[in-house]
Each structure stands twice: as C-alpha cells, then as structure tokens.
Amino acid sequence: MTTFEGSHDGKGMRVGIVCSRFNEFIVTALLDGAKRGLSAHGVSESNVDVVWVPGAFEIPIATKAMATSGRYDTLVTLGAVIRGETAHFEYVAGPVADSIAQIQLETGMPIGFAVLTVENVEQAVERSGPGAGNKGEEAAIGAIEMANVLKALR
C-alpha cells in the first residue's frame, strides 16, 4: 500500500493570493495571517503575489486568471462576506465558494479558501485575529500541503 501525504514545506513555491477589498480591515488581517503561515513554512516573500479585487464576487475571475497563468504552485483566496439585512449574503457566499471549487477541478490548481462567511463583524474579527485560528494562515498552510500532495500524485 502506498500512502500520499503533502508536507508543509513551501520552499521554492510561488504563491498567489487574491484579496477582496470589501471588508478590507478583516481581509488585511487574513492576509497578515496568510503571509505569516507562508513565511513560517519556507515560502519567500518575493515568491508571493497579492491581487486585490473590489469584492468577494470578483475573487473567482482573478483566481482563475492566476490559476491558468502558469506562474503559481498554489493560490489562496481571502475575503469576508458578512450577513446583513438583505439577501446579498446568499447571492455572494455560495457562488464564490462553488466557483473556487470549480476552478480547482478545471485547472488542477490547489486553492486555499479563506473567504469568511459569518453572521456578524465579531465573528469575522474572531476568525481573522493575530493568534491561533486565523483562517488566512490556515488556508495558506493548507494550500502548501495540497500543492505538495498533488505534486507527489503527479
């Protein structure tokens, strides 16, 4: 029996990050976490590109452009969709998640997903703080692992 597992070694990896400018104060904290996670696992800051888009709804198109560019080993998506008083949350959160999953399947590019879908600002702050539990950091480390496991499988 052969077992395939991805390591958290990001040395030499090129990583693209797509960030939503909407709820920027939350996304900036997620980005700080992602950078921290990448750096802790050997990814050089010079091998990281960050793209900012207007809102979460625009994340998939920028992600697909990066996934098909041939420049990256893995990608990370960062955003925050906070439920409000309208149906906007439903029209954005699900389609963004579905689109990122589809981009992975179409391109074979592993994509760490940290587009928060939360009920309120307090939940978003809790998931983007500087300590343990920063979802941007978790997504970045997961993206490294998936890039390595896919490399082993290929």
Automatic annotation (TrEMBL):
InterPro entries: LS, LS/RS, LS/RS_sf
Top EC group: transferase
S-adenosyl-L-methionine recorded as keyword: no
An example molecular function term from Gene Ontology annotations: 6,7-dimethyl-8-ribityllumazine synthase activity
GO biological process, one term: riboflavin biosynthetic process
Keyword Transferase attached: yes
EC number: 2.5.1.78
Catalytic activity: (2S)-2-hydroxy-3-oxobutyl phosphate + 5-amino-6-(D-ribitylamino)uracil = 6,7-dimethyl-8-(1-D-ribityl)lumazine + phosphate + 2 H2O + H(+)
Gene Ontology cellular component annotations, sorted alphabetically: cytosol; riboflavin synthase complex
Pathway: Cofactor biosynthesis; riboflavin biosynthesis; riboflavin from 2-hydroxy-3-oxobutyl phosphate and 5-amino-6-(D-ribitylamino)uracil: step 1/2
Keywords: Riboflavin biosynthesis, Transferase
UniProt xrefs under Gene3D superfamilies: Lumazine/riboflavin synthase
Classification via HAMAP family: Lumazine_synth (MF_00178)
The family this protein is said to belong to: Belongs to the DMRL synthase family.
Name this protein carries in UniProt: 6,7-dimethyl-8-ribityllumazine synthase
